[in-house]
Specification:
By secondary structure, the chain is mainly α. The protein is built from twelve helices and six strands. The protein has helices at 3-12, 17-28, 41-48, 52-64, 85-104, 138-162, 169-179, 183-197, 200-203, 213-218, 235-238, 244-247; strands spanning 36-37, 68-74, 78-83, 255-260, 268-270, 284-290. A hairpin with a 3-residue loop joins strand 2 and strand 3 (78-83). Helix 1 (3-12) packs across helix 5 and helix 6 packs parallel to helix 8. The longest helix is centred in the middle third of the chain and has 25 residues, at 138-162. The radius of gyration is 50 Å and the shape is rod-shaped.
Length: 291
């Protein structure tokens, strides 16, 4: 390949259009040492995708303009083309400059790595399992981390679905990740949520006093003891003999026992003290008249 002749044609040729294209292809096939090229017309036609007559017409124009000259045939077939003196001299200077740069370039002192294995030796096969150096296998490590991340997400979803107050999910997820409970601890947390959901505090005012999930997690509230359900007060204890007059206002003529109207609420009290349930705030109903 005539690399330096291609560059010389670009730098010095006056040809334009199709003539420059054909000249560059000739330079591509040139011998940089002699400045000559001898591609056949068929080869030029295949490269340029032009007919034989079109190639001949352009070559005749290049010869007439002094860009190349014909020097006879090589082997009785292909025509020998020689570039103009200006192009040949410029290509020679380019080659000399390249050779000079190559000769003055400092030699690399890096010794190539030598492979001391026999030619028929097979590449070592990495066995699965722990690395002899003690470092974790990166593939196994990645798979373990991905599996652990999936378990953490699933565990948090179970907690989130069970917790009655849905607020500040992102902060709750961060607090849950810090705890990173195993299966046993998660079961304890879920059982505590179920137990505390039935407590007086969490049932009051439609769950008004249920802590935020982040607060519950940071405070490790699954360890809290749940308040026992408030025991029902019998009418006899609330308004029993010897207690009625002392507990009633001076102008009260009688007292009566009341209980919450909600079937699931067991709260009971004195009618002259309150007119609503002291546990859930719901309506009350009269059950016993105290004499």
């Amino acid at each position: 390949m005539g690399f330096f002749h291609v560059q010389a044609v670009i730098d010095r040729s006056r040809a334009q259009g199709p003539a420059l294209t054909v000249l560059l292809v000739l330079a591509h096939f040139a011998d940089d040492a002699t400045g000559s090229a001898w591609p056949s017309l068929a080869k030029l036609g295949r490269v340029l995708k032009r007919s034989r007559s079109q190639i001949i017409a352009v070559l005749n124009r290049l010869v007439a303009d002094g860009e190349v000259e014909r020097r006879g045939r090589v082997g009785g077939r292909a025509m020998l083309y020689c570039f103009s003196a200006d192009i040949r001299e410029h290509a020679t200077r380019l080659k000399e400059e390249a050779d000079l740069k190559k000769s003055t370039r400092p030699e690399s002192r890096t010794c190539p790595e030598t492979d001391t294995r026999p030619e028929n030796a097979a590449e070592p096969v990495r066995k699965t399992g722990p690395d002899p150096s003690g470092k974790p296998d990166p593939i196994i490590k990645d798979q373990t981390e991905e599996s652990s991340s999936t378990r953490e997400r699933e565990a948090f979803e179970r907690f989130w679905n069970a917790y009655p107050r849905k607020a500040a999910r992102a902060k709750a997820a961060e607090a849950f990740a810090k705890i990173n409970p195993d299966g046993e601890l998660l079961a304890v947390m879920l059982e505590a949520i179920d137990r505390q959901s039935r407590s007086r505090q969490w049932a009051t005012d439609g769950g008004r006093f249920i802590p935020y999930p982040t607060t519950w997690l940071n405070g490790r509230r699954w360890q809290d003891a749940t308040d026992p359900p408030e025991a029902a007060t019998s009418p006899q204890l609330a308004c029993g003999p010897g207690e009625t007059k002392s507990r009633l206002p001076a102008d009260a003529e009688y007292a009566y026992a009341i209980k919450c109207a909600a079937p699931e609420c067991e709260w009971m009290g004195l009618g002259y003290v309150t007119r609503s349930c002291g546990k859930c705030g719901g309506p009350v109903e009269r059950v016993v008249l105290a004499e």
